[in-house]
Amino acid sequence: MKWTMRVAVAVLLVGLSATVLLSAANGGKLKVVTPGMILQMMVFGQKAAIPANKEASLPPGEYKPAGIELYAREADNKGNPVLWKLTSSGPYGKLATISVAEGQTTEVEGGEPITVKASCSIQAQGATKSVYVGLAYIGKSGEMYSPAVYRGTMRAPAPQLQFSDESGKVLNTASFEYG
Fold this sequence. Notes:
Layout: E1 5-12, E2 17-24, E3 28-32, E4 37-43, E5 46-51, E6 55-58, E7 61-63, E8 65-75, E9 81-88, E10 98-100, E11 105-108, E12 115-125, E13 128-138, E14 144-145, E15 150-151, E16 154-155, E17 160-164, E18 170-175
């Protein structure tokens, strides 16, 4: 199979990242259909960023994500735009392997709705008992996002947690800690 390829590389020196856009004479296409999602793939040894609603021409084969970024915009209380970001470095759920077939367009979908799952464990050391609660953000294709959420360029404050009894009385409050 003869491949004709044009490679345009845009290098952002600040972030030292590269975007590789590929165009092949024969092959398939990959399209990210989730608004605000950027899928990073390893293609020909280079990290290629495929943004939402863009098609990338690729040779037929199976590809594995190198990362996912999920963005959402909203206005703050003064009407100024704020950008939120979640990132994933795996596991990727149903997106762990993405197949591209010749002459076909493979659509990739993830992100919303995001399911927040909590895990809980109790550890005892002598008379002291500690409760550990973890968070997992899981996208619609089973991809797992980091619990570190970014609002603009800053990490958003850790979520708050309340412990209540059966009647609803708050027994204790706490904050999650990153790390």
